[in-house]
Amino acid sequence: MKYLPLLLALSAPVLLSGCIISVDDHKDGYSNDWQDREYNNRKHIAKLQEGMGFENIVGRMGVADFSELQQKEDGVYRILYYRTQRSTEDGITTKDECTPLVFKNGELIGWGERAYTAL
Q1: What are the residues whose beta carbons fall under 8 Å from the beta carbon of 17, sequence distance 6 or more?
Q2: Does domain 33-117 bear CATH number 3.30.1450.10?
Q3: Which of 31, 60, 97, 100 is deepest in the core (most CB within 10 A)?
Q4: Could you tell me if 77 and 119 are in contact, meaning their C-beta atoms sit under 8 angstroms apart?
Q5: Cβ atoms of 80 and 62 closer than 8 Å
Q6: What pTM, to 2 d.p., does this model score?
Q7: How deeply is 57 buried, as exposed, middle or buried, from its count of CB atoms within 10 A (0-12, 13-18, 19+)?
Q8: Could you tell me the residue ranges of all domains in the chain?
Q9: Which of 84, 83, 75, 71 is nearest to 109 (CA)?
């Protein structure tokens, strides 16, 4: 009975260890998921047209990196930010790495910094 704690302590690493298998499609071992995501977002943004609906765009582009909602006298403004360019290699997406899409009452009225700052 006095050897039970010792037996448990010695067997714990074996019993609690896991097996990790990493499959890397990239030859240099570097994942470029962020590059693919940015390219995909830029590709979708290039095809945008004013008047497109909020649901239509979110259905195409997916979940935005950031989202804002502003209630003003002339309507409800929603701003979605999609990552389109990396500025810092820190692994964190910030708004300065994103392109804003501006919606008024559910319709796209513009995109980019000028559209956002015009609010």
Answers
A1: none
A2: yes
A3: 100
A4: yes
A5: no
A6: 0.71
A7: buried
A8: 33-117
A9: 75
